[in-house]
Amino acid sequence: MSESSVIQVSNLKRVYGKTVAVDNVSFEVKKGEIFGFLGPNGAGKTTTIRMLTGVILPDPDEGEVKILGIDIKEDPISVKKIMGVVPELCNVYVDLSSWDNMILTGKIYGVKRKEREEKAEELLKKFGLWERREEKTRKFSKGMKQRLILAMSLIHEPKILFLDEPTSGLDVQSARMIRKIIEELRLKGKTIFLTTHNIEEANLLCDRIAIINKGKIVAIDSPEKLKSTFKRMQSVEVAFDRMPEDIKWCRSIPYVNECKELGDKFRVYTKDPDSLIKKLVNFAEKNNLKFISLNTLGPSLEDVFVALTEKVEAKYHE
Amino acid sequence: MSKLYTKRTFLYTLKTSLVITEKNVRIYYLKAPIIIFGILFPVFFFLAFALGRKVIPFILTSGLIAMTLFFTSSSVGPLITPWERNAKTYERLLASPVSLSSILLGDMLAGAIFGVIISSIPLTIGILFFNAKFFHPLFLVGNIVLSSFCFSSLGVLLASLATEAPSQVMMLSSLVRFPLIFISGIFIPLDKFPFWGKVIAFMSPLTYTVDAMKYSLYDLKSYPVLINLWALLFFSFVFFSIALKMHRKNLIKVL
After folding, report:
1. Nearest to A67 by CA among A57, A79, A75
2. Range of the structural domain that residue B35 is part of
3. Cβ of A275: how many Cβ atoms within 10 Å?
4. A174 close to A144: Cβ distance less than 8 angstroms
5. What is the ipTM of this complex?
6. Which residue of A80, A89, A91 is in closest CB contact with B97?
7. pTM of structure
8. Among all residues of chain A, which has the CA nearest to that of B83?
9. Across residues B214-232, what is the average pLDDT?
């Protein structure tokens, strides 16, 4: 285990009845890193996060979680004090105002009175909730509640932040604000463990990504390296001035792995974009077609995610 | 070192449970199920029992105070956990640096405080209108405090049901609480019970509250006085220990 690792997970396992929710998961998260944790629904993300945050404490035979070198089983309270958590399905106390929610959280985390009042004011201002601090949060929109939950998770200045789907179901402004704040937190040296279904969000924010499926980690790397390992998923997007007469025109062209019709254009997947483009030019000349657009595209993180999770899915059903 | 650590852990548990209590007091005391099951029910029960009948004052007063204490203290606990699960605030609480025992202790304290506050009303009525006197004031305080802890622990235990629907827990709690009213010497003195009735009454914590109340306010008793307090302490401990175990067991089922 490296010294700069703030989260160390070894052989984590959790079984519910006959279902293996988390299957021998091991990884490390380094200090100051935004670590994305992706997976389809039911892949084991939430169970893993619950085990990392001490909501479920792993049994001795269920592996080991160390946060800043402290074993979560040995001293869960000390570990919880150094982390801020935004669970996937969570809410504020709707019978309390946003100010009271902040103060209550500060008290729970043992933040001293003066400090918690100053911090509550600073965070409510930062998250655009200061003007409505005395209103009961029952009247707040989902975006406002989510901003408040994130603000509450920061009141004790945590070193590590666990965010489970922080922007899920939010309006564009609130989602952008939360992403901006995550970036600011990274600049402050905080370590962030981020779960999201928004692949583009993970692509833009994360230094490294782990993909989990059927309880197992199927890949861990930086977004760009993950993409580069999927060269066969490079593609060329092409639009002609009219549709080719033969709807199966792609099949006649060498270097094509797969072809998809996307509205008025085609996305052609290949391992060798250069050779494919040359063949496409020949094809266009031969069929008297004019190019409207021609773009080369690398594999998106979404392509990688789908490829990895489908591969495991196929293996699982064999 | 280990003693120091244990002491520190104990103080931390106590400190965080007080924060949880404060939260519970602010959020749950005025919730409709608590008002209905905790305050209105004992009032209606009492009226149905006392109106138009000649009831001996000591039975009336001690029964009313004990019943109020029982209903109010045990009405808060069953609501909090399912309400928090339903409102999706429970997991955030579990992820915070608060142990499950602190959370449950906080829930128990909230119920106990509620019981003590509300039962002061029938106590005042008893003293003003029904000849109740402070024969044993310290014993009265001990009885009220221990009974409120005991019944609020029962409430916390009932809340361990693996559900996020408060109505289901309230239903279960009514099912458990109502029979106890009739077997604990509230409406009929214990010495008029048949033998099997006395055996059943012996197993109800409410019996000891009623008996201790009669002793405190009218200098009457059925059991040796200290037995009442020890029994209440024993039931509190048992209820809370089982509650802790059950909440831990059912934790993951309802997240």
Report:
1. A79
2. 2-254
3. 12
4. yes
5. 0.86
6. A80
7. 0.84
8. A93
9. 89
